[in-house]
Amino acid sequence: MSAAKNININLKIWRQKNANSKGSIETYKLDNVSTASSFLEMLDQLNEQLINERKEPVAFDHDCREGICGSCSLYINGRAHGPDTGITTCQLHMRMFNDGDTIYIEPWRSKAFPVIKDLVVDRTAFDRIQQAGGFVSVNTSGNTIDANSIPVPKVDADKAFEAAACIGCGACVATCKNGSAMLFVGAKVSQYALLPQGKVEATQRVLNMVRQMDEEGFGNCTNTGACEIECPKGISLENIARMNREFLKASVK
Amino acid sequence: MKLDSKIPAGPLKDKWTDHKNHLKLVAPNNRPKIDIIVVGTGLAGASAAASLGEMGYNVKAFCFQDSPRRAHSIAAQGGINAAKNYQNDGDSIYRLFYDTIKGGDYRAREANVHRLAEVSGNIIDQCVAQGVPFAREYGGMLDNRSFGGTQVQRTFYAAGQTGQQLLLGAYSALSRQIGLGRVKMYNRHEMLDLVKVDGKARGIIARNLITGEIERHSAHAVVIASGGYGNVYFLSTNAMGSNVTAGWKIHKQGALFANPCYVQIHPTCIPVHGTNQSKLTLMSESLRNSGRIWVPKKKEDAEAIRAGKLKPTQIAEEDRDYYLERKYPAFGNLVPRDVASRAAKEVCDAGHGIEANDTNEGVYLDFSTEIQTKGKQSAYAKGNHNPTPEEITALGKQWLEEKYGNLFTMYQKITDENPYETPMKIYPAVHYTMGGVWVDYNLQSTIPGCFVAGEANFSDHGANRLGASALMQGLADGYFVLPYTISNYLADEIRTGKISTDSPEFLEAEARVKDSISKFLNNNGTKSVDYFHKKLGLIMWNKVGMGRNEKGLTEAIAEIAQLKEDFYKEVYVPGSADELNPELEKVLRVADFIELGQLMAMDALQRKESCGGHFREEYQDAEGETLRDDENFKFVGAWEYKGDDISREELHKEELKYEEIKIAARNYK
Amino acid sequence: MAKSALLKSSIVKKYWMALTGLFLCLFLAGHLAGNLQLIFGTSQQFNEYALFMTTNPAVKLLSYLTYISILFHAIDGIMLTIQNKKARPVGYAKTDGSSSSLASRNMAVLGTVIMVFIATHMVNFWAKMHFDKNMPLVQKEMDNGMGQKQIQLVGTKDSQMPYMQLDQSGKLSKEFFETIKMQTQGQYDLEVQDMTKIVNKKTGEVIFEGYKDLYKLTVDFFKDAKYGLFFTIGYVLAMLALAFHLWHGFQSAFQSLGATSSKLTPAIKFFGRAFAIIVPLLFAIIPIFLHFKK
């Protein structure tokens, strides 16, 4: 391990009082940041400094701080979840930065993700897409068939899992030049399309989820592939292709 | 107050079936007339809300996160237990029941745990039907692995993200109900008080975290599924937002709080690295299937490692102390969590710790043996019966990557060290709280109509929870227990009609909440919320942590009482009440943590025995193992709130009866 | 599913982009094969090919399909671009393009460049070929048997007369037709129809059919003393834009149609990239070749 050291940085952070007000980029100077700190711990440190100066701390979404809840959502130096791949912002560490660096921190930008305050955005559009069809219609019951009664080929189960690993953070939308949510929707559609349990409702599911996705105001996929690169869970573009396929199948049915 | 656990009569294995058959029902046409509030959308909350919505009740679900999918159940890594016996290794409902009771150090209710084991199989069936992509074998059947405290393979998993997959399953069921309009979801809402009318739970006061509006919500029953209180320690594996407020508020309204001192310290977390650290990261227990835990035998080697003069790979095999294998040959590295954690503390206290932090606390989790073993197996499986050492190593690493790739990557991102090449550094961290709101067999608290599920209640894990059992309990409560027991309660509510939120009780509760918010905002102190939270955490970790003693606990009680005073005097909260204000959210949570912290110390002090996660240094056997006192402490300690001064809380005891299991000293040797 | 979804849904828009795009790739391949005759064929071959392409009914149908595809591809592309711009009303202060290729991010710009190119290309060649009254016809300098050189139009294979004489100035002049009319006592009253045909008005009989000299037009265009180099450079740049457009677009079409598989996709990607390099490169070589040809 490279030994931790302290660095001084300049921060350019989007500040916006609430959804209705106009925001702007503000500049802050933060000294003595340990390179062993996570990026969010650096923001904690900034907030502690702001509170001590009787200024309003920066609001940002975060929760589990271990890369799985999908809350954190920062656009750092022009990249979703910052200058590293395969991680969320909370897993980004300050050792990725150098002394004297200027770091831009902005919220996800998308019509479907309006800013609530500072760096916090509203991602309930994803929930509504899920509500439109991201489920198997099975009621709770102690009498569902035994879990092993339908064998599922390991390849399919593994692919379904890889798609289901999506944490719903919205980095795909944030990074896509079109603000498209197709990686998110594609992953959900794929997970179910790959499993026998999900196949029953496959037709309706893909049509409904895509309809909702369009209604939310997300942009359209132009296959730039940026989402796949920036996705902290490495969800593959293959899932978008599968959704396209499923949609085609469903459309001609 | 007499605690009635309402455990049904009859033979243990028939209790739940019998009980279910005699519970009252609410007819489908009456269910839409009944409102239910569910607070929390983790495994227990989401599964309960989805199931109750499906049944036809009007459900309102609340979570403080921006989406129900982000509840902290999502972070569970390793797996979920179920007595399916798919691996033909002699597993059964009874064995799962027995392992769980024993793992809990004989401090859990037999009837509850047996019910848990009974429905465990249904959970897997239900989840698979929902499209949860569990790991499978090449034949298409579900795969299993082992976890601590068991000698069978009964843990179902989805790579290192089982909690995520299960929660997304429950979330999908919940989403379906929201889409159908049967559940109304309130994201970014925090419950700040419970409203009681005529002694019954009739609603909650919640704050809309975006607008700051204080809202009154009424219901015929309230389910609290808000998780555990590990964040009392500031540093824990819990999410930053995880809090005890919902549980603590109902405690203040009359629900007893049971066994608060039972805290699970998870043995395999990444050690603390610095003062600005905000949270600790868990490395799944499943790693103990493949990793061997050790520290240097010689103190001077440990010192040299801490000073950066030696690398762990330079320590010769004979100079390594694989202390778990040495002390517990039968279970080895797979002893239960409390045992593994304590053993780590012991070797570090003795000066063998390897992490260069303030406390030198850290031990190695080494995969080199596994790399060789699995590498050789893989080579043979590929038909190569004369593999070179390089081939073996490469194949072994490949095997590890397939099994634990995401965990290894996570470790590397956080620590900047490559665990394929050098052993992981780990140390115990606060992970799960077995204690919680006291509930009866029906999961109802001492407040009628107020039910508590999942980690928020105290019911199933005794003094220590076995790995992969939390997910099982959360889903069991939400899918298979609450829907029955809550209907039994609601059967008497079909004539109640809509409950007004304009009653004096609601207005009073609302005023209480508003008052406390405005007090904090106008306090004009000088110190941030985190300042106090960190202080509390330090007291708790040092004196109410892995090793506890009378002196430390007594000091802790006084220190926390003092901290509480300072907190109310000195805390500064910026911003206003009518906006998104994370500092305000924090201050309200920390206020409750401080009070609970004091109660935890009191509970630990009164429990003059060692059991599971509660280790009193005064009560250990000759080999340093926990020494229970079954004669005097075979009870659930449930505390009753008696006003602002926590030290006045009153202890009630629910005697634990063991009819099926012969209670014995826990032995993993 | 609602019928309108076939037009409105975001995914269907992708299908249309993909289908029209792939069709246009086919068109490119065909067009290239024809154009390469400018280098590897004779002027006659090329002009015969040009004639075939403008008269064959099947080719006509195909060409209409091509026009529609181009239009649809462009309009759908513009609609998508507008929708995509709307999806991010507030942009980022700082961006970093490292996670996607330049081509993939700029398909609309590249498409616009290509569209402008297609428009000028059609004005310069297609429109002249179809509508320009001054479009040169294929001519040949011949000995008239009296030691005199004379310029004659060359007839197509189906033409009744293999050649048609022109007047001194090399034109089909009215005077010349008058002379013939007089010489034949009014039997042959000739007139030019459809730019290439010489018809006897009396009988309606086509006595001569020449064909347009697209080869000459093309060579002259790129060899133009004043603008030839400029045209050549413009053409090459447009082909560069096309290369980038195809680099992303070819494989992207298969992705949009969901035509992917672990075995096929690498092959499609490889083929797409090869196509994106080879086709525009060959296209671009032609004007360079013509420009510098002695």
Automatic annotation (TrEMBL), chain A:
Its cofactor is [2Fe-2S] cluster; [3Fe-4S] cluster. One of its GO terms (molecular function) is electron transfer activity. This is Succinate dehydrogenase / fumarate reductase iron-sulfur subunit. Gene3D superfamilies: 3.10.20.30, Alpha-helical ferredoxin. It comes from the Bacteria. InterPro entries: 2Fe-2S_ferredoxin-like_sf, 2Fe2S_fd_BS, 4Fe4S_Fe-S-bd, Beta-grasp_dom_sf, Helical_ferredxn, SDH/FRD_Iron-Sulfur, Succ_DH/fum_Rdtase_N. Belongs to the succinate dehydrogenase/fumarate reductase iron-sulfur protein family. Transmembrane segments: none annotated. Residues 157-187 form the 4Fe-4S ferredoxin-type domain. GO terms for biological process: aerobic respiration; respiratory electron transport chain. Pfam families: Fer2_3 (PF13085), Fer4_8 (PF13183). PROSITE patterns: 2FE2S_FER_1, 4FE4S_FER_2.
Automatic annotation (TrEMBL), chain B:
The keyword Membrane applies. Its cofactor is FAD. GO terms for molecular function: electron transfer activity; flavin adenine dinucleotide binding; succinate dehydrogenase (quinone) activity. One of its GO terms (cellular component) is plasma membrane. It comes from the Bacteria. Its EC number is 1.3.5.1. It is a peripheral membrane protein. It is an enzyme of class 1 (oxidoreductase). InterPro entries: FAD-dep_OxRdtase_2_FAD-bd, FAD/NAD-bd_sf, Fum_R/Succ_DH_flav-like_C_sf, Fum_Rdtase/Succ_DH_flav-like_C, SdhA/FrdA/AprA, Succ_DH/Fum_Rdt_flav_su, Succ_DH/fumarate_Rdtase_cat_sf. The active site is at R337 (proton acceptor). It is found in: Cell membrane. It catalyses: a quinone + succinate = fumarate + a quinol. SUPFAM superfamilies: FAD/NAD(P)-binding domain, Succinate dehydrogenase/fumarate reductase flavoprotein C-terminal domain, Succinate dehydrogenase/fumarate reductase flavoprotein, catalytic domain. Keywords: Cell membrane, Electron transport, FAD, Flavoprotein, Membrane, Oxidoreductase, Transport. Residues 35-471 form the FAD-dependent oxidoreductase 2 FAD-binding domain. Residues 533-668 form the Fumarate reductase/succinate dehydrogenase flavoprotein-like C-terminal domain. One of its GO terms (biological process) is anaerobic respiration. Belongs to the FAD-dependent oxidoreductase 2 family. FRD/SDH subfamily. PANTHER family: SUCCINATE DEHYDROGENASE 2 FLAVOPROTEIN SUBUNIT, SUCCINATE DEHYDROGENASE FLAVOPROTEIN SUBUNIT. This is succinate dehydrogenase. It comes from Flavobacterium cheniae. The lineage of its organism: Bacteria, Pseudomonadati, Bacteroidota, Flavobacteriia, Flavobacteriales.
From TrEMBL, chain C:
SUPFAM superfamilies: Fumarate reductase respiratory complex transmembrane subunits (SSF81343). The chain crosses the membrane at residues 65-82, 103-127, 227-250, 270-292. Keywords: Membrane, Transmembrane, Transmembrane helix. It comes from the Bacteria. CDD domains: SQR_TypeB_2_TM (cd03498). One of its GO terms (cellular component) is membrane. This is Succinate dehydrogenase / fumarate reductase cytochrome b subunit. It comes from Flavobacterium cheniae. The lineage of its organism: Bacteria, Pseudomonadati, Bacteroidota, Flavobacteriia, Flavobacteriales.
